[in-house]
Amino acid sequence: MAHKFTFYNTLTRKVEEFIPREEGKVSMYTCGPTVYHYAHIGNIRTYIMQDALIKSLKYAGFDVKRVMNITDVGHLSSDADTGEDKMLAGAKREHKTVMEIAKFYTDAFFNDFDAVGNMRPDVVEPATNCIPEFIHMVETLLEKGFAYVAGGNVYFDTSKLNDYYVFSSEVEKEQLQVGVRDDVEEDTNKKNKTDFVLWFTKSKFEDQALKWDSPWGVGYPGWHIECSCISMKHLGEFIDIHCGGVDNIFPHHTNEIAQSESYLGHEWCKYWFHSNHLNDKSGKMSKSKGAILTVSLLKEKGYDPLVYRFFCLQSHYRKPLEFSYEALDQSVQAYNKLVRRVSELKNDGAVDEAVKTEFEEKFTDAVSNDLNTSMAVTVLYDALKADTNDATKLALVESFDKVLSLDLVAHAKSLLEGTEVDPELEKYILDAIQRRTDAKKAKDFATADAIRAELLEKGVEIKDTREGVKWQLI
Ligand SMILES: [Zn+2]
Fold first, then answer.
1. Is the pLDDT assigned to residue 96 strictly greater than 90?
2. How far is the centre of ligand 1, averaged over its atoms, from the C-alpha of 424 (Å)?
3. What is the pLDDT of residues 41-94, one digit of tens each?
4. Which of 68, 362, 411, 430 could form a disulfide with 339 if both were Cys (CB 3.0 to 4.6 A apart)?
């Protein structure tokens, strides 16, 4: 029997007990990346919190099957056809074909996704694999009277629904309606302002790169349809949990529900899990603000991606999180201390099963209480301080790491052996030491001291010895 599990359901706007359709089994769908550019660390925060959710559900005794899409087609910036084909823009920018761009950014995405300790979804499906499924859904929506053809495009008719704004309170509905009215770029084909495109054959952007034959002419799918179809293809007519960032709630998830439930004729997904933004000091992180802060970039700056995970886990998924290098440096120090503490544990005999169970229950209570990951980290600290032998503590660290995925035992081992430091981190350290040596030679002691301080902030201590400069992680 799985442990009682609660989290905030955006659909009912409250923390609820999660009860899947089939006892102990969870079908989960995650909106995947749009692969025309890098995913920034704010996007990766969303995937870290989803990973924590999946692993927590497993820890609590559920079986989870998870499906994710890859948006490798079109993706206009809005349904009003005011955006450009971002895949094509990416291809032009980088002198590559659209599919080369998709492959490059899919690989870059998973590189960062994996580096922060995430488990890959059971199914990852690119949208371009599912064109017949999209066409079938659009045909059915037309047959059922939920869609119409205008100006060469197929639109979903939102006036056919009793409650289109399913996620919103009455006040929010009014605000959204005002927002939709104020939308300057208007698609005159639409019967209602909230209608959205299911299939394009006519677009302002005639050089759309990927096109397919359809009953309505050569064209390409709208933005929202892929998630509904890919989810149904792999998980059937019902899903238990649909995940995304708060950005996705409107219009994306609102439109997914509109088309899915109109197609199916019944409720589609009962629980909607959304994680909040990562902000920097200037506001929300976004792709449009020039340089993109990625996990790979953090790595180049000498940060272990798992420290970024640790930073995210220490905050609640429903709260906005402010990113700064100062805050990340604090996580580096806390993480290194944790690794050092674990490295001091000896395998000193039999595990005390009673103590282990007691702490595992505390840990399960924390993660199953609206995914309280910071409390789960506190349980880890408590376990390390507990009045029990090291073997039990070590067993608990390994047990909690099934959810936390901080790789503490392996890091502790490499600390002891003094080897196996991440090669990029090592390169960064050696570069910094070289810069410091050069500065000292040039009698620029201020720079040399600044480099020593920079390394110390990253948890690297250097010592000048007769054999040269030695360094160690602290
Ligand atoms: Zn989606």
1. no
2. 34
3. 999 999 999 999 999 999 999 999 999 999 988 655 444 444 456 666 777 777
4. 411
Annotated domain spans of the chain: 6-280, 324-407, 423-473
Q: State in Å: Cα 78 to ligand 1 middle.
A: 14
> Which CATH fold would you assign to the domain 6-280?
Rossmann fold (3.40.50)
pLDDT over threshold 80, residue 466: no
Q: For 166-197, b where at least 16 C-beta lie within 10 A, e where not — what string?
A: bbbeeeeeeebeeeeeeeeeebebbeeebbbb
Ligand 1 centroid–CA 216 distance in Å is 24
Return d(Cα 409, Cα 300) in angstroms, integer.
24
Q: Which CATH number fits domain 324-407: 3.20.20.140, 1.20.120.640, 3.40.640.10, 3.40.50.1820?
A: 1.20.120.640
Q: Could you tell me the distance, in angstroms and rounded to a whole number, from the CA of residue 70 to the centre of ligand 1?
A: 9
What is the whole-number distance in angstroms between the Cα of residue 271 and the centre of ligand 1?
A: 14
Distance from residue 249's CA to the centre of ligand 1 (Å): 10
For residue 350, the CA-to-ligand 1 centroid distance in Å is: 48
On whether the CB atoms of residues 424 and 303 are closer than 8 A, the answer is no
pTM: predicted TM-score of the whole model, two decimal places? 0.86
Between the alpha carbon of residue 471 and those of residues 178, 235, 292, 443, the distances in Å are 60, 51, 31, 22
**Separation of 233 CA from ligand 1 center, angstroms?**
14
